[in-house]
TrEMBL record:
Residues 1-21 form the signal peptide. It comes from Silvimonas iriomotensis. Keywords: Signal. This is Toluene tolerance family protein. InterPro entries: MlaC/ttg2D. The keyword Signal applies. Pfam families: MlaC.
Length: 206
C-alpha cells in the first residue's frame, strides 16, 4: 500500500465517526459529513453482495459533499490550464470515480475506527473552514486529519484532505504531473480510466 493510499484511507475512516459531532448549524461542514456518511454506510451494508450498486448509489450521495471539479484542478495543477474543456471534464469524471471507489472500499472494510473531533478552525479566507480530528485504530498510531471546506454558492464543499499535515491533493499533483510529462493529459485520463474499469467502476458522465 502506498503512503498516499494509506493517508486517504485514514481520511475516509473518519467520515462515519464525525457523526459524533453535534454542530449547531445543520448546514455546517460537520453536519454535512454526518448525514452523508450515515447514508453511505447504510448503502454499503444493504448492498454487500453488489459492489457496482454500492459504488453507484454511494456516488450519488457523496457528490454533494465534495467539489470534485476544484479537487481535480488542484490535483492536476498547472496542466489543468492547458487541458481542453473536454479533457478537463474527462479528468474530473475519472478522478471523481477514483475517489468514490476508494471511499466505498475503505468504509466497507474499516467500520471500527474511532475519531476524536477536535473542532473547526478558520481557513485562509472567511469562506473556508477546516475540520480537525484524530483517527484512532486498535494497534495503530493515531493519525491527525484535516478536512478542508469552502463555502460555495452551492454550500459547503470539501476541496482537500490532509493527513499529518500532508495534502492529499498536493501528493496526487506530483504523481499526475509525472504521468502528464510522459504521456500527456490524455495519458493520465487513460490511466485513471483503466484503473476505474479494472475495479468495475462505471464512471459518471457529469
Amino acid at each position: 500500500m502506498t503512503r498516499i493510499t494509506h493517508w486517504f484511507m485514514a481520511a475516509l475512516l473518519c467520515l462515519p465517526v464525525l457523526a459524533l459531532a453535534v454542530p449547531a448549524d445543520p448546514a455546517s461542514p460537520e453536519a454535512i459529513v454526518r448525514g452523508v456518511s450515515k447514508d453511505v454506510l447504510e448503502i454499503i451494508n444493504a448492498n454487500v453482495q453488489d459492489p457496482v450498486k454500492q459504488q453507484t448509489m454511494a456516488d450519488a450521495r457523496l457528490v454533494p459533499l465534495a467539489d470534485f471539479g476544484r479537487m481535480t484542478a488542484l490535483a492536476v495543477g498547472k496542466y489543468w490550464r492547458t487541458a481542453t474543456p473536454e479533457q478537463q471534464q474527462a479528468l474530473t469524471t475519472e478522478f471523481r470515480a477514483m475517489l468514490v471507489r476508494t471511499w466505498v472500499a475503505v468504509l466497507s472494510n474499516h467500520k471500527g475506527a474511532q475519531v476524536d473531533v477536535k473542532g473547526t478552525r478558520p481557513g485562509e479566507t472567511a469562506q473556508e473552514q477546516t475540520v480537525h480530528s484524530v483517527v484512532n485504530q486498535p494497534g495503530q498510531q493515531a493519525i491527525a486529519l484535516d478536512l478542508d471546506f469552502e463555502n460555495t454558492a452551492a454550500g459547503w464543499k470539501v476541496y482537500d484532505i490532509s493527513i499529518e499535515g500532508i495534502s492529499f491533493i498536493n501528493s496526487h499533483r506530483n504523481q499526475f504531473g509525472s504521468v502528464i510529462q510522459k504521456d500527456g493529459v490524455d495519458g493520465l485520463i487513460k490511466q485513471l480510466s483503466a484503473a476505474n474499469a479494472k475495479a468495475g467502476v462505471r464512471t459518471a458522465t457529469k
